Amino acid sequence: MKKFKIMIATGFLVASYLPTIAQDKGLTFGAYLETYYNYDFSNPDNHQRPGFIYSHNRHNEFSLNLGLLKASYQDETLRGNFSLMTGSYADANLVAEPTVLKHIFEANVGVKLSKTSDLWLDVGVLPSHIGFESAIGILNPTLTRSISAENSPYFETGAKLTWKSDDAKWLLSGLILNGWQRIQRVEGNNTPAFGHQVTFTPNDRISLNSSSFVGNDFPDSLRRMRYFHNLYGIFKLSEKLSLTTGFDIGFQQKIKGSNDYDTWYTPTVILALSPSEKVTVALRAEYYADKNGVIINSQTANGFKTFGFSANVDLKINKLATWRLEARNLTSKDPIFTHENGGANDSNFVVATSLAISF
After folding, report:
1. What H or E segment, with its residue span, contains residue 250?
2. Which of 72, 79, 325, 354 is the most exposed place for a label (fewest CB within 10 A)?
3. 3-state secondary structure of 226
4. Which residues pair with 106 in a beta bridge?
5. DSSP code for 138
6. pLDDT in tens, the chain (359 residues)
């Protein structure tokens, strides 16, 4: 008889986002469900948060951010993952994919290439190698995602070669991809994209990561090369205090064959304090500058230049349940936030709460 395990959780960094509910010779099954409620004080009539927000993006309604079912297999030489999903996250992030692919969260197969070292080749739809935030809420220190996470890939499709050192201090990956957060290629695009990831974890208190993307996300006739780098560090300052810092920078050709590039960049800092086993408080500061609208096109005189501040509280009710509450304010150089009266101003304030369940 198979054994079943049930857990409810939100908001804490964990090694695996889905616990096992069933296991048989390396095959496991699990599920994840994250519900939320936002109140955006701009009070948009269409209940939609600003266009550069892709997770927890519904206003003044109880909603499902992400619900998924997952099957995984792992043995000494073979591994695979398959997850189907639904929710407002799926609706927003896979809008460019054909209907048959819109509900795929993860679908990949991996083979071990060496008998003497931890060297794997994984092919398919994979979690992104960029950034310290995941689509899975319980892996993140804050309820909502940073602007940098929302506007860089959550997932990718391609082949990934990964090596881990015997002492687990180094992880090295090289990737060939279909594009920038793509399952299917852009029509008319025959240019492969590339990426790398290097993670150094010298001890259980420090983790440093460098990731990149190099490629074209347009048809070949309009080819504009994009060069993007993500750098972050996670530091455990004490038993109760942790610091996460990140900096993204990107360059993209203005037109095909040009030596001129548009640039965007974004720093993010998150400080998390756990005064007790049941309470965690996280403060986030961030800035996103995209003057020429490569990623976020505000169609304003100064482009997209926005500061963000948020405060997050997690209450661990017991070992099974955690409740999250967050207040967040965004301030832009130009009036880019639409209000219920049809006007716009330069600030946006939202309060959000969420509860997730893994089983």
Report:
1. strand 241-253
2. 325
3. strand
4. 83
5. G
6. 333 333 333 333 333 445 544 556 789 999 999 999 999 999 988 899 999 999 999 999 999 999 999 999 999 999 999 999 999 999 999 999 999 999 999 999 999 999 999 999 999 999 999 999 999 998 899 999 999 999 999 999 999 999 999 999 999 999 999 999 999 999 999 999 999 999 999 999 999 999 999 999 999 999 999 999 999 999 999 999 999 999 999 999 999 999 999 999 999 999 999 999 999 999 999 999 999 999 999 989 999 999 999 999 998 888 767 899 999 999 999 998 887 777 788 999 999 999 998 88
Please name the amino acid found at residue 302: N
Angle at CA of residue 357, ends 356 and 359, nearest 5°: 155
What is the DSSP code string of 23-87? EETTEEEEEEEEEEEEEETT--TT-B--TT--SS-B-SSEEEEEEEEEEEEE-SSEEEEEEEEES
Nearest to 33 by CA among 100, 71, 86: 86
Tell me how far the alpha carbon of residue 39 is from its chain's centroid. 22
Question: What is the DSSP track for 321-345?
Answer: -EEEEEEEEEEESS--EE-TTS-EE
Q: What is the largest CA-CA distance in the chain?
A: 65
Show the tokens assigned to 135: 């689509």
What is the DSSP secondary structure assignment for residue 206, as one 8-state letter? E
Tokens (6 digits) for 345: 């101003």
Q: Where are the alpha helices (DSSP H) in the chain?
A: 88-93, 147-150
**Cα 89 to Cα 149: distance, rounded to the nearest angstrom:** 13
